[in-house]
Amino acid sequence: MAIKVIERKPLSLAERTYIPQIVNGLGITMKNMLKPAVTLEYPDERPDIPTGYRGVPTLVKDPNGREKCVSCQLCEFVCPPKAIRITPGAIEEEADNAHVEKAPEEFEINMLRCIYCGYCQEVCPEEAIFLQDIFSLNGMSREELIFKKKKLYEIGGTLPDNHYKWDKKREAELAGNPHH
Amino acid sequence: MDLTHLIWLVTKAVLMISVVMGGAAYAVLMERKVAAAIQGRPGPNRTQIPIFGSLPVIGPFLTRIGIFQPMADGLKFLFKEDPFPKHVNAFYYVLAPLVAFIPAMTTMTVMPFGVYTGEDGIQNPMVLANLDIGILFIFAVSSLGVYGIILGGWSANSKYPFLGGIRASAQMISYELALGLSLLPVFMWFGGTLNLYDIVLGQEDLLFGFIPSWTVFYQPLSALIFLVALFAETNRLPFDMPESETDLVAGYNTEYGAFKFGLFFVGEYAHIIIGSGVFVLLFLGGWSIPYVTYPAGYVGGALSVLVFAFKVFLLVFFFMWIRWTLPRFRYDQVMDLGWRKLLPLAIANLVFYAVVIALIEQF
Question: What is the Cα–Cα distance from B341 to A70, expressed in whole angstroms?
């Protein structure tokens, strides 16, 4: 193996006194001191959550305020830790969206079981359940951490809808094409 | 000595002590803030006290800059449980923080911090005791501080404090030599006076008519050696061998907590403030600034104190700035620097200025 001898220059007097290096270092720290802080003051400031983040699962409404979940129970079946429990219910005849026929009477997600895998969001045919940007949650009791339907809609809010699937169905039905 | 005079003396002393103690407390805050700024974070910005903290605009601002933090820290030191390990040598264990704290508080008695010009134009130093051997007194007493550290390290009866104590004694003895020798040229320059006030008076004129005749400008090497030795004497980074958290846990104060630790802590920062004060007096012209004479009366006196305090503040800032810039030396390098670099340099410096001063006096 060839050995390459690297010639090391002897230190100059200025380098040996160490003072220019100290002055240099002081300059660097001063530059850093004048820069703004890079930290995030967490409880007051929140980090920007990137889209596609898998936070706490929530139920959402469409921009018209219609409850999107039709209690098909696909999420309940796909949920690996069996955290979701849905009690299906019927929509009253007089309601505006009676043609949807079904809605959950109760929708429970046990946050002590949920593993934030996002399968429920992936499987939902109605785009009704989303893992949004809540990343910290706590509670004083086990009951409190079983999120009920009301709570789930509260933290879910409204998300934009690209399809308005059930509005289209109704239009088709009114136009005499019930199997659209 | 009549009673009013006595009361006046006691008031002065209490005032001075509270200023230095408060300064030490806020030096801790300043250290944390400087560290935070250099590391790109905000530093202490939460602590609030009830009434001041809720003032409209000032309250949040004061909270933000951490003004109330030292109060919280001080209260914590007072009210924390005071741990008393079973394996210590009780008498010396209690004595050590006092021995570390008292010299730091005592040295300030001879430190002039301003000048008071009477109506008749006679200038008097503002100082608790205007000793003719002021600087000797400071050296003599502040060297006692090392006993606190050695005692603390030894009486704690466990290995890390012991190592810290040994390092402290070795380091302080080594650097005391360079510290003293670096100052001899200064005293020779000012005609052999050891009185700090006279030395400041000697720095009030202009050098070559445009730069202030502060000692640092014509004895830069003395100033440098003194500053380096001062860093070592006050156990500041890059010379904080006695503490060096990474290899000695916390050094000599490992076994201490609560109030006893607080004494060490405050003593250390008081030491820094007083060391900076001495450096300002000897090398940076004390309260004198070029082209300015202080007006007679209390206003002039207060101004001179403010200028002095500002210079000390800048130097304390420099101490902290250095701390967050330089890493700690290795122990043998500290010894090497002290004995084989600084000491010969200080002696050469002394000889050089002795010759120069002799020549100046000759011609």
Answer: 84
| DSSP per-residue letters across B189-209 | HTTT---HHHHHHTT-SEETT
Whether B37 contacts B324, CB under 8 Å: no
Using CA coordinates, name the residue in chain A closest to B318.
Answer: A26
* Minimal C-alpha gap between B37 and chain A (Å): 5
User: Which residues are CB-neighbours of B334 under 8 A, at least 6 positions away?
Assistant: B171, B174, B232, B239, B241
Distances (CA, A) of B201 to A49, B289, B341: 64, 11, 32
Provide ipTM, 2 decimals.
Answer: 0.77
Give the 3-state secondary structure of residue A58.
Answer: strand
Q: What is the pTM of this model?
A: 0.80
Q: Is the dihedral of CA B288, B292, B295, B299 positive or negative?
A: negative
Half-sphere exposure of B288 (CA within 13 A, CB side): 24
- pLDDT tens for each residue of B246-298: 677 777 777 787 788 888 888 888 888 888 888 888 888 878 777 777 777 77
Chain A residue closest in CA terms to B42: A37
Among partner residues B36, B41, B324, which is closest to A29 by beta-carbon distance?
B324
Between the alpha carbon of residue B94 and those of residues A27, B101, B131, the distances in Å are 43, 12, 32
Q: Which residue of chain B has the CA closest to A22? A: B326
Round to whole Å and give the CA distance between B141 and B127.
17
Could you give the residue ranges of the DSSP H alpha helices within A49-148?
74-78, 119-123
Closest C-alpha to B149, from B75, B232, B273, B26? B232
Structure-block tokens of residue B63:
């909270």
Q: Which of B38, B225, B315 to mutate to test the interface with A (most CBs of A within 10 A)?
A: B38
Distance in angstroms (rounded) separating the CA atoms of residues B325 and B213: 30
Distances (CA, A) of A57 to A45, A139, B225: 22, 16, 66
**Which residues of chain A, if any, have pLDDT below 70?**
179-180
Distance CA B182, CA B342 (A): 9
Q: Are B34 and B18 a contacting pair, CB within 8 Å?
A: no
Sequence-distant (≥ 6) Cβ neighbours of residue B110 within 8 angstroms: B127, B128, B129, B130, B131, B134, B137, B138, B196
Question: Which two tokens mark B49?
Answer: 């006290």
Hunting for tokens 């659209």 — which residue is that?
Answer: A180
**A37 Cα to chain B: minimum distance (Å):** 4
Q: How many angstroms separate the CA atoms of B189 and B199, rounded? A: 9
CB contact (8 A) between residue B321 and residue A26: yes
Q: Smallest Cβ distance to A38: which of B40, B322, B326?
A: B40
